[in-house]
Design goal:
Layout: E1 2-5, E2 12-13, E3 25-26, E4 33-34, H1 36-44, E5 46-50, E6 53-59, H2 65-69, H3 75-82, H4 93-96, E7 103-109, E8 112-120, E9 128-136, H5 145-160, E10 165-171, H6 175-183, E11 187-189, E12 196-199, E13 202-212
Parallel strand pairs: 9-10
Antiparallel strand pairs: 1-2, 1-5, 3-4, 5-6, 6-7, 7-8, 8-9, 10-13, 11-13, 12-13
Length: 213
């Protein structure tokens, strides 16, 4: 794999980024601070090249909402994605904008939107990011797009945000998503108590996963 922040002048590979390139200037998303050079390059895109494919990660735009929401074609899929946090199925683009307090990322293959996820800081200390609302275009599933999108998110967490840990949760009844997270390198975490939600007249239990950076 080749990882690069693109495009700001000429691209630079992430492994070659110096510490001074990621310290010093306000990002605008969180209280973390980084150099204008490093953050402005992420604001345009973070790109992964593997084989003959390219996945690009950029900040979410409100115009992305319609396409992303179209991927949930039934009630069960919608609740596996949102846990009902955004309201009852189906939701509008306006309701989807409730996620505006989170860091929101859109993944693209060439110029087509293929995925979406959010990140937030779940604790007062800034050592951890928590991914959520992870979704891939159903027509792209099973082809590695989800795994590579998550890996780009992990690179953002490590290089830009300087997190030491990324966590996420997934319903036990969502095996496809669970296998995607495992393929991206996330590991199971045993919690003292399993988180549960009552959805569609059923009790849905959650798995907890983490990635140590």
């Amino acid at each position: 794999l080749k990882w690069a922040f693109l495009p700001v002048g000429e691209a630079f590979l992430i492994p070659g980024v110096s510490r001074r390139d990621v310290d010093g200037i306000e990002t605008g998303w969180q209280s973390r601070t980084f150099s204008q050079n490093a953050f402005s390059s992420f604001k345009k895109s973070l790109t992964c090249l593997w084989g003959d494919r390219m996945i690009r990660l950029r900040p979410y735009k409100e115009s992305d909402a319609e396409r992303i929401l179209s991927w949930c074609k039934d009630e069960r899929t919608f609740y596996q994605w949102t846990a009902g946090i955004l309201g009852a199925y189906p939701i509008s683009a306006e309701q989807f904008s409730q996620l505006g307090s989170l860091m929101r990322f859109t993944a693209l293959d060439d110029k087509e939107i293929v995925g979406f996820f959010t990140a937030r800081n779940p604790k007062p200390i800034l050592e951890e990011l928590r991914f959520g609302f992870v979704i891939i275009d159903p027509e792209k599933r099973g082809r590695g797009f989800g795994k590579e999108m998550l890996r780009l998110g992990l690179e953002y967490a490590r290089i830009v945000y300087k997190a030491k840990r990324v966590s996420l949760g997934v319903f036990e009844n969502n095996d496809r998503a669970y296998r995607c997270y495992k393929a991206a390198g996330f590991q199971d975490v045993t919690l003292p108590e399993t988180e549960q939600y009552r959805i569609m007249g059923e009790v849905w239990a959650c798995r907890e996963l983490e990635y140590l950076l």
